[in-house]
Amino acid sequence: MKTPHIPLDAPYSESQRAWLNGFFAGMHTHMIQSSGSVNQVAARVITILYGSQTGNAESVANNAAAVAKAHGLKPVIKGMDEVEIDALAAMEYVLIITSTYGEGDMPDNAQLLWEAACTETAPKLENMKFSVLALGDTSYDLFCQAGKDWDEKLAELGANRIYERTDCDVDYDEPAETWISAVIPHMAEGASTTSAVVDITAQSVEKPKYNRKNPFPAKMLVNRILTGPSSSKETRHYEISIAGSGLSYEAGDALCIVPTNCPVLVTDIIKTLGCNGDEDEPVNGELVALHEALRTQFEIKTPSKELIEEIARRSGDQELNGILESGDKDALSKYLWGRDTLDLLLQFPACEFSASEFIALLKPLQHRAYSISSSSKMYPDAVHLTVASVRYESYNTLHKGVCSTFLADRVDDETDVPCFFSPNKVFRVPEDDNLPMIMVGPGTGLAPFRAFLQERQYKKARGKNWLFFGDRNAATDFMYREELEAYQKSGLLTRLDLAFSRDQEKKLYVQDRMLENGAELYAWLEQGGYFFVCGDAYRMAKDVDKALHDVIAEHGKLNDQQAVEYVNQLKKDKRYVRDVY
Ligand SMILES: Cc1cc2nc3c(=O)[nH]c(=O)nc-3n(C[C@H](O)[C@H](O)[C@H](O)COP(=O)(O)OP(=O)(O)OC[C@H]3O[C@@H](n4cnc5c(N)ncnc54)[C@H](O)[C@@H]3O)c2cc1C
Ligand SMILES: NC(=O)c1ccc[n+]([C@@H]2O[C@H](COP(=O)([O-])OP(=O)(O)OC[C@H]3O[C@@H](n4cnc5c(N)ncnc54)[C@H](OP(=O)(O)O)[C@@H]3O)[C@@H](O)[C@H]2O)c1
Ligand SMILES: Cc1cc2nc3c(=O)[nH]c(=O)nc-3n(C[C@H](O)[C@H](O)[C@H](O)COP(=O)(O)O)c2cc1C
Residue 460: which of 484, 491, 438 has the closest Cα? Predict the structure, then answer.
């Protein structure tokens, strides 16, 4: 049997073509077996709706669309923020691909449609046939919750689920491919036939160049500390060379780093297990020495749920079992706060795991994302990052974050920085150079705004720029101070409002500065200004959101509901966008 391939004149981008060819190489058997013929199906419209914060769901949606096209379907891809509830009601064939954010929440671009679907007046969807692909991460309590919510809601509104939901963990490529390969024939079923769709003939399989499984081996050019010697934290500036990679990026994108674990932690764990490290263990079909497997393949700092449950079972520890049985997530977070995998092994030595048992309870080591703090227009061959090193003392030991300290301590001239880009298409400098930008970025949240300012400087953009920045203490934590003050002097930075939280008795935060300057902030919004937020998702972004509503209500003389509508319109216009983590 021949391998399917996409003709060169088919309307796909190069990356889609590469993806499709790879996809078909794995899928054609399934297609032929399941549908008999893949060549003759009608141009039925299917709508692919994505809810996505950082682009993963969007890229899967593009892949699904490419496969749908190849089946003769007419895919229409839309972000969930591009669809009103009445338009949803009119759709007949729908695929929903969504990630989950925050704590089981919708990604920002799905929030409004979700709220509309949850109102009592939401329309019935009895004409709709749908399936859901949920992206998530099993290390979160509410795994794939947004996808689960949509799956239930559409069924509740009368829509007909024509293929079961698939929930994907961080390595979503394969399950997503499987879901696409299964769901598209269902979407095509019963459509009347038209002209041939895909010429399925042999062609070599291309793969996208650099990704999670094949990262670019970059070189570290600069590793410089930004915080002062007496600071209570350590934040660093990195410059990473992408010369020769053929890669490029946009201000607003993130760079994902694939780290390795600290060798000292690896050795301590091996010792605690009573192993010598040379034990060969099967990893992805190959035998790998235990020490190498723990260094490069598995998450060994943050304990997996499976490991915690097994430790509770083997130890019979009353406290831990009590917490697990109660299902009290806050109590579990509190119990685990500051305790890493090694702490748990040391706390319960009687559990006695063999190397194989231990490894079977670990999760794969994941990449970490970092918002890029440079503009490629100024630095085409380098990526700048602004990273807070995670270091803290607990249980009498110094604990280190895997990736932030990989960058800080373990990358040298001989050690590459394996990386790939994660585009964020909505987190972008306004296309119109004349429109104002308001940027709220305390702590490492400053990163993308340094890139935005460079971008605007390079483009000689005339729009006003306003930065709200804050950190702990001005004397030690005012990162990029000289650059920002120079931007202020040159006029690039129209306003710089600072909030150093620990310089006075009462905490002072960026949202306090927003409220103090509410009239002007509102005026900038009224002039068509964009409102960007980056940094901590759990506390800061929520408080900033509240402050934005308050500013709009007060200075726009609006009631609460009208202020919500004003903010919702900003979101729909993609003038209120966040890069929060
Ligand atoms: C889109 C995106 C953009 C991001 N951009 C940036 C950026 O520009 N700069 C940046 O610095 N980070 C950024 N991050 C966060 C970054 O990805 C990592 O999460 C961060 O660097 C920590 O990773 P780590 O591997 O060093 O720590 P990990 O090994 O993942 O350890 C972190 C864990 O350690 C524990 N912990 C941390 N501090 C303490 C403490 N004081 N006491 C007890 N336990 C603690 C917590 O359980 C925490 O979850 C971004 C994240 C996303 C998703
Ligand atoms: N959920 C998470 O696990 C999470 C979230 C964000 C960042 N981080 C990690 O923490 C490290 C340091 O992060 P960072 O430098 O970006 O930020 P940070 O040190 O946590 O905070 C930066 C500034 O924001 C202030 N802040 C605290 N609560 C706030 C609130 N509700 N509203 C507004 N401002 C608030 C802080 O003040 P005070 O500290 O004085 O209160 C500080 O002045 C990084 O490794 C990052 O990845 C983890
Ligand atoms: C701050 C943050 C919060 C997240 N919260 C959850 C969650 O509650 N449940 C879950 O299953 N996944 C969660 N995830 C994982 C994302 O859903 C997952 O990384 C997904 O692939 C992101 O896809 P996107 O780029 O399309 O948004 C979270 C990720 C981040 C960075």
Answer: 491
For residue 64, what are its two tokens? 């699904």
Q: How far is the CA of 514 from the centre of ligand 2 (A)?
A: 18
Q: Which of 60, 96, 99 to mutate to test the pocket of ligand 3 (most atoms within 8 A of CB)?
A: 99
Angle at 351 between CA 348 and CA 355, to 5 degrees: 115
Phi and psi dihedrals of 202, rounded to 5? -65, 140
Structure tokens at 69: 């096209």
**Residue-wise pLDDT tens digits, 259-295:** 999 999 999 999 999 999 999 999 989 999 999 999 9
What does the pLDDT look like over 315-362, one tens digit per residue?
A: 999 999 999 999 998 999 999 999 999 999 999 999 999 999 999 999
What predicted TM-score, i.e. pTM, was given to this entire model?
A: 0.90
Q: Which residues of 368-377 are buried (b: 16+ CB within 10 A; e: fewer)?
A: bbbbbbbbbe
Ligand 2 atom closest to the Cα of residue 539 is 31
Question: How remote is the CA of residue 254 from the centroid of ligand 1, in Å?
Answer: 14
pLDDT in tens, 65-88: 999 999 999 999 999 999 999 999
Element (H, E) at 146: helix 145-156
Closest residue CA from atom 35 of ligand 2: 540
How far the first Cα of the chain sits from its last, in Å, is 47
Domains of the chain: 14-188 (3.40.50.360), 216-259+367-422 (2.40.30.10), 263-360 (1.20.990.10), 437-580 (3.40.50.80)
Mutate which of 536, 539, 540, 546 for ligand 2? The one with the most ligand atoms within 8 Å of its CB, which is 536
